[in-house]
Design a protein that fits this description.
By secondary structure, this protein is α/β, with parallel strands linked by helices. The protein has one domain. The protein is built from eleven helices and nine strands. Strand 8 and strand 9 form a beta hairpin. The chain is globular, with a radius of gyration of 20 Å.
Length: 327
């Protein structure tokens, strides 16, 4: 295929995916929740049936994370993960509709996740951390319906007087689809901070004392350090950690999980550090801090293993992995 025909084919394919995405969003808006979620499960099942490499990757990942389980239990967990991914795909397409229904997305009561006595709920904890005047970083991952989590936080954080939620995003390589997804995030109140724009927008947002959400659970095209995750070394993005350590920005691990027909937002105790401007690039300090972050994500995933995206090659140390859409 010559260069001209290849370019035309690529543009046509991207436009097809854009039209397909728009069509699915429009269709999702017309379906009742139970039917739409079943449709999502069917679509994901069909897609993974055509991509055996991702299914094999998920099996390997489950073996790494849960070596104590026998193969039958891991296969059952894999089936649950497929179904959860399908249901969450549908919910991602109808985030405004879910947010409009009272009680469909709720915050878990204080102390429920860690077993510790916490003085207040998620928003009160965020308010206390914001009072340190360093900004706040929400640490999360591709757990549950993470786009719904972003929409819920973008609504609740300003309502609590904590400014606008900033979200660090990757870029979908299909530009029309990327614009569609980013515009939907902005319509939900998120301030989109594309990773490709560099570090300055992130610094500016944190410098205003606001809240930023970042997903740290995938192997992407950024500078990484090998850090333990489920007991095995995994490439972990190190750039944001330097900012956190140099400025002493508090980090709050947060995730969302399905609960009946709705969803519940959970959080762990914050990860706190004093400003360490001279140690922000020290490899040992960075590795220890990222180890705390990975351990927090691991705790959230273990609480809700069926809703993590196991189909991504998280432990591949070669880098440059493709990733699902992120904040």
């Amino acid at each position: 295929m010559d260069a001209g025909r290849h370019s035309l084919f690529r543009r046509s394919r991207r436009r097809f995916y854009w039209l397909l995405t728009r069509g699915l969003i429009l269709l999702a808006g017309c379906l009742p929740l139970f039917l739409g979620r079943e449709l999502g499960r069917g679509l994901v099942g069909m897609a993974l049936g055509l991509r055996p490499k991702e299914v094999s990757c998920a099996r390997n990942n489950l073996l790494i994370a849960f070596p104590e389980l026998d193969s039958t239990c891991r296969e059952q967990l894999l089936r649950q993960a497929k179904r959860a991914l399908g249901a969450n795909l549908f919910d991602t397409m109808v985030v405004p509709r879910l947010l409009a229904r009272p009680g469909l997305v709720v915050s878990e009561p204080a102390g429920r996740l860690t077993g510790e006595i916490q003085p207040s709920g998620l928003l009160e904890v965020l308010a206390g951390l914001a009072g340190m005047n360093r900004g706040v970083m929400i640490l999360t991952g591709h757990i549950g319906c993470w786009e719904l989590l972003g929409g819920w936080l973008a609504r609740e954080i300003p309502a609590a007087g904590l400014g606008r939620l900033g979200v660090v995003t990757g870029t979908i390589h299909n530009q029309p689809v990327d614009r569609l997804v980013q515009d939907k995030r902005r319509s939900l109140g998120m301030k989109v901070l594309p990773r490709e724009d560099g570090i300055r927008p992130l610094l500016d947002h944190l410098g205003s004392g606001s809240v930023v959400a970042v997903l740290l659970d995938q192997n992407t095209r950024v500078q990484n350090l090998p850090v333990s995750f489920f007991g095995k070394s995994a490439p972990t993005a190190a750039g944001f950690a330097r900012i956190i350590l140099r400025r002493g920005i508090p980090v709050l691990p947060v995730a969302i999980a399905r609960a009946g027909e709705g969803h519940v937002v959970r959080y762990l105790d914050p990860i706190l550090s004093e400003p360490l401007p001279e140690l922000g690039s020290d490899p040992e300090v960075l590795e220890n801090f990222l180890g705390e972050c990975n351990l927090a994500l691991e705790k959230l995933i273990r609480r809700n293993p069926a809703e993590w995206v196991w189909f991504h090659d998280r432990w591949n140390d070669r880098g440059a992995n493709s990733a699902v859409a992120v904040f």
